[in-house]
Amino acid sequence: MKLLTLLALTFSLTAQESPNILLILADDLGYGDVTCYNTTSKITTPHIDQLARDGMRFTDAHSPCTVCTPTRYSLMTGQMGFRIPRGGTVFSGAGGPSLITPERLTLPELLREKNYSTACIGKWHIGLTFYDKNNQALHDGSPAAIERIDYARRIDGGPLDHGFDQFFGTACCPTTDWLYAFIEGDRIPVPPTKKIDRTKLPNHPYSQDCRDGYIADNFPMEDIDLVFLEKSRAFLQAHAKAKSGKPFFLFHSAQAVHLPSFAAERFKGKSKAGPHGDFILELDWIVGELMKTLTELGLAENTLVIFTSDNGPEIASAVHMRVDHQHDPAHPWRGIKRDQWEGGHRVPFIVRWPSKIKANTTSDQLISHTDVMATIAAITDSKLPDNAAEDSFNMLPAYLGNAPKPIRPYLLTQAFSPKFLSIRRGQWKYIDHPGSGGNNYEKNPDLKPYHLPDTSPTQLYDLATDPGETKNLINTQPEIAKELKTLLEQTKASGRSR
User: N or C: which end of the chain has fewer CB within 10 A?
Assistant: First the structure.
């Protein structure tokens, strides 16, 4: 009977009009930053909490990597970044080329084949190709390369080359980069003309990530997310006005809450939890404004909304928020951004789809951002070719509340380097390297209070009894460690986990 019910639900989804899709990706937002995930959070997040009340909140969701670029690659392709050359790259400046090869099927390409209008607004950070006046590709992340860019030439390898009809955003991290300028489509219409004057920007413990790059005259460092919001609103309004009958896919890729924490003026001091708390408050408000726009345009009822983050919280965010405001952005997990421990990759993940996803529900299904592609393929009745989305699992049954058993047989995660991998199966987590895989806890004085000395070359944790990953069982459970190590090597060799 359960099988028949699931088949009927699946048929009803594919037989009717495909839903609109709004994918909101926060940047460096920790599991503990959101009130509905952390009741002790010092920042209120009413709009994200409302999204959870209106839909489903996943408690065991993971970014594929503990840093942004590989995660974004995996979100767009359904393939783990470590499987490709340069799969651990984090781009800056004119760095590139794109990690996505031309033949690789992407999520927006999949949807465009189903007659979707597609738009990417915000941070790209998967690599681009800028050219100099001699038409030579730069592929250079240094500040010197910015001076060589020929802004009259097309930028290759960006969102327009990978399935998006429209793009407005930035090449890399909007307020942390050497290149502070907006890309519209495949060009920068207002190039940077001068070095940034950091003396005019906020100076506090959460503002030190801002590099001395080149800035365009139309690039408001403290209002970047408000610009992205207006561009996403404009896309939604134009789509509603066109009445084309086509569904849309909007990827809203936020700057917030990546450091530096430059909250807009209207949010400063409002969180009572410092500049970073104000920035989280702004992100929450933006989520609310996007939902408000969907409702005003009559689009909310047939729109699948997915909200998540690209990895755990940054070092400065975690250290200073813990000391200054008694707020733990990674609560209740060990680790932060770059770390293989849970705090580096366990993230908020909320889905809302009225009349399809039951409101105010939670799921403990083990899921990854790589799963978005296979899930949306199922929703839109799209067939994934064998050489695409190799690490993506269809989570639609979990969305619909019809998955009593785990869908994923295991989960892979990647730390800062593609050589640093872990595998999770059920309650067991095997880390195939020593230490965190990212941050140096021994040499960083700010991180020493959270350091648990362990010289073992590999790690094994039982998350059922030790969710804080405090007891390395590598020597007491050798058979389990051996099984997981073998499974990890098999999936690396096979090139897929799906």
Answer: N
Q: Are residues 378 and 479 in the same domain?
A: no
What is the H or E stretch that residue 58 is in?
Answer: strand 56-58
Cα separation, 374 vs 353, whole angstroms: 17
Q: What's residue 111's pLDDT?
A: 98
Which two structure tokens, joined as six digits, stand for 119?
Answer: 């738009």
Q: Print the domain residue range for 393.
A: 2-405
- Provide the 10 A C-beta neighbour count for residue 228: 24
Cα separation, 445 vs 438, whole angstroms: 15
* CA-atom Rg of the chain in angstroms: 22
The alpha-helical segments, DSSP class H, found in 55-174 are 68-77, 107-112, 143-146
My answer on whether 343 and 461 are in the same domain is no
CATH of the domain at 425: 3.30.1120.10
Q: How far apart are CA 321 and CA 69, in angstroms?
A: 25
Predicted local confidence at residue 31, as pLDDT = 98
Strands (E) across 68-184 are located at 117-123, 166-170, 179-180, 183-184
| 494: number of Cβ within 10 Å | 9
- Over residues 271-288, the mean pLDDT reads 98
Same domain? For 337 and 484 the reply is no
- CA-nearest of 414, 416, 396, 415 to 491 is 414
DSSP H or E segment with residue 2? helix 2-15
d(CA 55, CA 399): 9
Picking from 373, 405, 437, the residue at the C-terminal end of a domain is: 405
Is the predicted pLDDT of residue 201 greater than 60, yes or no? yes
**Can you give the CATH number for the domain in which 322 is found?**
3.40.720.10
Q: Which residue has the tokens 């407005």?
A: 168
